[in-house]
Design goal:
heterodimer, A: alpha/beta, Rossmann fold, 3 domains, 6-stranded mixed β-sheet, 18 helices, 24 strands, 32% helix, B: mainly alpha, binds adenosine-5'-diphosphate, binds magnesium ion
């Protein structure tokens, strides 16, 4: 039997970039085919070609053995191909049903929308595939994981047989990822085939039947989870041996750089998000904040960087009280901030990389003189940082929005690290990034620490916190339950604290004595 | 993947870059299509065409084409000039005849001038993420303050009186922009609603000013006194050509707005706030400040449009003098992709159309509204470039990625 899908020699170039270089790909029916590659490898481009969003320069597409011309998503849908995009394409003010119907509207009495008929079909789909969803909820009201389900239902509604999922786990919590994997297995049981795009090795090992690795627009290998290991995949993906562990020496903590005393912060809805929190960060150390998402991490970071006012308590940065200071004042004291949402807070996507690299220094020498921007210096700075921080882009004046996530993050890191800083808040610094970028950013963070910078690392990835930190503070409902020494802390102990359980001394002894283990995600 | 070294850029390239990204071909084709459709419309609304169709189809078609053609010929001669008449005038050597023959062109520039000011006002606001619908009201206020400075401040030499009167106009408009800016910054009141309200206040306020405090006592109808000759924007030719200094002031303002937006730290701040207010906050930019400043400057530019009209064209303020410059400005600023250079070009287009329309009405009896329809059609096509791309089978723009990310709304 012919494979459900075959791509032969797909080639696509963008100005200055060969995004896909003669890519061959074969997907058998009922298979979960992982497409693995670093950010910028060309995964999205390939799938956009398959989905008819781009026209390839060269190459052929076969569906069920038949050669097809896919000129637009309409053709793709006709051929049974559906895609869940990296960025969802939902209308927030529409209900789930309306979003699913969009473009495929059922009508009655001439042209009145038949919501009921559509809702019935959605019901049926959600029963068959165990996709729980409220068809009448507004998309703006449901969490990200649920929105992704809406996207999946959209495809099933259009009776897609080949489902492309572009980095579907990037925006999900660990629990939501589990749910998604269950859904994927149900779909396979129903005879669908799935192309699962990711750069996360752990996921590939867990879910894929077949793995195709692409790098720099070329297929560099094909394998299965049984035939290869995490390290093999990582090396294949990055093109060299990768060190999955973080190399770091013992920290040499110096004086206190950040001191937080009885801090109290409200979230925008007026609930207490940070409740009487106190801690210190010393120069030359990484303090990791571990915790389940939504336990006050966001508010803590925003309070420390002047983006959210504290209603009580004090924050001392290098001895100066800053809880009432503006973000600019705090930045000027030598504080840097890698925000948790790089696209929302950290970058102006419409601006060129060069401008993003001076986003908080544009008003200072040498980038401006009095009110005049010095475009030459800004461009020169951009060129240097693009070079030094290995930002992959056709040109330093490309808009930040057209970069891959890893490169966008590198722009932020480059900007924050290129000025003299004494304190760094890194919030989810590697969320949604590929191995290469994660390795790189981890290395840079440790480098900053060794340069004597005080680093506050906030991450919901426990492994990341454990790998990088020298001390680990576990937050639960806006309080720090305990601060542990990273050398002796175990995942189990931290896990208990993250769930809000404070173990007795005895339990602590037991958990603490276990060998430290680090697993890679 | 490879870092190609095509990174060298000339300093002025931004000016062009920003603008060319919007695909000029689409704009040109939209204008062209608008003209064709306008012609069809003219033919449809002319009785003779129907009469001719009753005779025979070909007769009708011929008459339809002739009518449309004549309309556009008179639109052209009305806005640019009649080439035959110009050459005859130059042969005769009579200065008055020459001036009359070339007047249409200069009159179009006169018409374009308030559009440039108004379009810049809208564009500046837009770049800072603000939709200034209040340009029309700001024009009225600017005209009132400008004209007051023109007739009430006596004893000033021209080289002081003119700038002072222009500044008064700018100041009036600035106040009218400052209020919605402040309300937005302090209370979050949406500038669209507030500026619409401010428009009504401006219209009625100027009505009242014209009837009472600023009324010329020697007149029966509400009019202000004539401004002093020292406040008149100098004209470059004798009658009937009204082309005056205002045009160059407008172009100068376009250059200033360009420099402000793209070459200064303030412009950097405004554009950052306009493109991503969250990132602006993160970068330590004061959003409230940028909002107030942008609205104030936008109002000031609009106010200059009003002052320009009273100081350069009418020499006094009459009721309902602006006839929608402010609202057209919104459209043309978008047509010009909110870029100063684009604003100048689209202002010229609007100015020439508006001026040509008048003589078109006189010469062939086509209602002046046809030009409004033409403008509307052109704008509709600009707003929906997909239509133009389909009609002319243009290739999709390279930056499809933009389309894709537009679909996401998480930001
Ligand atoms: N629309 C585009 N215009 C120019 N370059 C693009 C465009 N889309 C992607 N690229 C470039 O093509 C390469 C592959 O990108 P992409 O397919 O998004 O990678 P991935 O999805 O594997 O992270 C990158 O270098 C990216 O910068
Ligand atoms: Mg991608």
């Amino acid at each position: 039997m012919a494979p459900v899908l075959e791509l032969r020699g797909i080639t696509k170039s963008f100005p200055g970039v060969l995004a896909n270089d003669h890519i061959d790909l074969m997907v058998e029916k009922g298979e979960i085919h992982a497409l693995l590659g670093e950010n910028g490898a060309g995964k999205t481009t390939l799938m956009n070609i398959l989905y008819g969003l781009y026209n390839p320069d060269e190459g052929e597409i076969f569906v069920n053995g038949q050669k097809l011309e896919i000129k637009s998503p309409v053709d793709a849908i006709k051929a049974g191909i559906g895609m869940v995009h990296q960025h969802f394409m939902l209308v927030p003010v529409f209900t789930v049903t309306e979003n699913v119907m969009l473009g495929e509207e059922y009508v009655k009495y001439g042209d009145v929308l038949d919501r009921k008929k559509a809702a019935d079909k959605i019901h049926e789909i959600s029963n068959t595939y165990k996709l729980e969803i409220d068809p009448d909820a507004y998309v703006s009201d449901i969490p990200v994981g649920m929105q992704q389900r809406v996207e999946i239902i959209k495809l099933l509604f259009r009776e897609a047989d080949i489902l492309i999922m572009d980095e579907p786990t990037a925006v999900l919590t660990p629990q939501e990822v589990e749910e998604l994997f269950k859904i994927i297995h149900t779909m396979i049981d129903q005879g669908k085939s799935i192309i699962f795009i990711t750069h996360k090795l752990g996921e590939v090992m867990e879910i894929a039947d077949q793995i195709t690795v692409i790098r720099g627009g070329k297929v560099v290998g094909s394998t299965t989870p049984h035939e290869s290991s995490l390290n093999d995949l990582a090396s294949m993906m990055v093109g060299r041996d990768v060190n999955l562990e973080v190399d770091k020496t013992e920290s040499k903590p110096g004086e206190v750089v950040l001191e937080v005393k009885d801090l109290k912060v409200l979230d925008p809805q007026g609930h207490v998000a940070i409740d009487n929190m106190s801690f210190n960060v010393h120069s030359g150390e990484v303090l990791g904040i571990a915790g389940v998402q939504g336990n006050g991490q966001t508010e803590l970071v925003r309070a420390l960087t002047g983006l959210l006012p504290a209603i009580d308590g004090e924050i001392y940065l290098l001895g100066k009280e800053i809880s009432k200071n503006s973000p600019r004042k705090i930045t000027e004291l030598g504080s840097a901030h890698i925000p948790e949402d790089r696209q929302k807070d950290g970058l102006v996507l419409a601006f060129p990389i060069t401008d993003n690299l001076v986003l908080n220094t544009y008003y200072l020498e040498p980038f401006s003189k009095s009110i005049w921007l010095d475009q030459k210096k800004i461009l020169q700075n951009g060129k240097e940082l693009v070079e030094n921080f290995d930002i992959r882009t056709p040109s330093p004046t490309t808009s930040a929005g057209s970069l891959s996530g890893g490169n966008q993050q590198k722009v932020i890191v480059a900007r924050e690290f290129s000025r003299p800083i004494k304190f760094l808040v890194a919030s989810q610094p590697t969320r949604g990034l590929d191995v290469g970028s994660i390795e790189y950013i981890h290395k840079r963070l440790i480098q900053k620490r060794d340069d004597g910078c005080a680093v506050l690392l906030v991450s919901t990835e426990l492994d990341e916190v454990m790998q990088l930190s020298d001390r680990i503070a576990v937050v639960y409902r806006g309080r720090i339950l305990d601060v542990l020494d990273a050398n002796t802390a175990t995942k189990e102990l931290i896990g208990l604290l993250m769930a809000g359980i404070i173990p007795t001394e005895e339990e602590k002894q037991k958990l603490g004595s276990k060998q430290k283990q680090i697993r890679l995600t | 993947m490879d870092k190609s070294e095509n990174t060298q850029k000339k300093p002025l390239s931004v000016f062009w870059d920003e603008f060319s990204r919007s695909n000029i071909l689409v704009i040109i084709l939209a204008v062209f299509t608008g003209i064709v459709l306008g012609g069809v419309l003219v033919a449809f609304t002319t009785n003779e065409v129907y009469d001719a169709f009753r005779v025979s189809f070909w007769n009708g078609l011929g008459t339809a084409i002739r009518t449309a053609w004549n309309t556009y010929v008179s639109l052209f001669t009305g806005s640019v000039g009649d080439p035959q008449r110009i050459s005859r005038a130059f042969e005769s050597g009579d200065p008055l005849a020459i001036r009359r023959a070339i007047n249409p062109f200069f009159e179009s520039l006169v018409q374009s001038t308030p559009y440039i000011f108004g379009g810049l006002a809208v564009a500046l606001g837009f770049r800072a993420g603000l939709f200034n619908i209040g340009v029309e009201g700001q024009i009225f206020i600017g005209a009132a303050t400008g004209v007051w400075a023109g007739y009430a401040l006596t004893g000033l030499p021209a080289f002081i009186h003119i700038p002072v009167a222009m500044l008064f106009g700018a100041l009036g408009g600035a106040i009218w922009g400052f209020v919605p800016g402040l309300l937005k910054a302090k209370t979050g009141a949406h500038e669209v609603i507030v500026t619409i309200m401010m428009n009504y206040i401006a219209f009625r306020l100027v009505d009242w000013l014209l009837k009472f405090p600023m009324k010329d006592p020697t007149e029966f109808t509400p009019k202000t006194p004539w401004i002093l000759s020292t406040a008149q924007l100098p004209r470059f030719f004798d009658t009937p050509i009204r082309f005056h200094l205002g045009f160059f002031i407008a172009v100068l303002m376009a250059v200033l707005v360009y420099l402000l937006l793209f070459k200064t730290t303030w412009g950097f701040e405004l554009r950052t706030v306009g493109s991503n207010p969250n990132a602006a906050r993160y970068a330590g930019i004061k959003i409230t400040m940028a909002t107030v400043v942008a609205m104030t400057l936008s109002g000031a530019l609009a106010g200059m449009a009003g002052a320009n009209e009273v100081l350069g064209v009418n020499y006094r303020l009459l009721p309902a003098f602006s006839s929608g410059y402010g609202f057209d400005s919104i459209a043309l600023a978008l047509l010009g992709k909110t870029h100063p250079l684009g604003v100048i070009l689209s202002s010229l287009l609007f100015g020439f159309l508006r001026n040509g329309a008048r003589s078109m009405q006189l010469a062939v009896g086509v209602p002046i509204d046809i030009v409004s329809i033409l403008q509307a059609v052109i704008l509709a096509f600009i707003a929906a470039p997909a239509i133009i791309r389909t009609i002319y089978r243009l290739r999709e723009p390279k930056h499809k990625e933009d389309l894709v990310t537009l679909g996401s709304w998480k930001g």
